[in-house]
Specification:
Layout lengths: L1 H7 L8 E4 L8 H10 L1 E4 L9 H16 L1
Parallel strand pairs: 1-2
């Protein structure tokens, strides 16, 4: 993850807001330090199905398809 950040973010972007999810590779202290060196860091809320619009759409679609069986 740190290699990715150094290659694609640091040096190219400064003073930007980088939003990450709560994946274990994202909450590593080294990752935090590398991002915070030149940018701001914000973690997304932990996954909740109701905060993800596409999940809601697919749940409705799935329900509709199951009714047709």
């Amino acid at each position: 993850m740190v290699d990715f950040i150094n290659k694609f973010i640091n040096g190219k972007y400064k003073n930007k807001l980088i939003i990450l999810d709560n994946a274990s590779s994202h909450i590593n202290q080294l990752v935090k330090d590398v991002i915070k060196k030149d940018n701001n860091l914000l973690y997304a809320v932990p996954y909740q199905h109701y905060t993800n619009a596409i999940d809601g759409y697919f749940n409705v679609l799935k329900s509709q398809l199951q009714k047709k069986k």
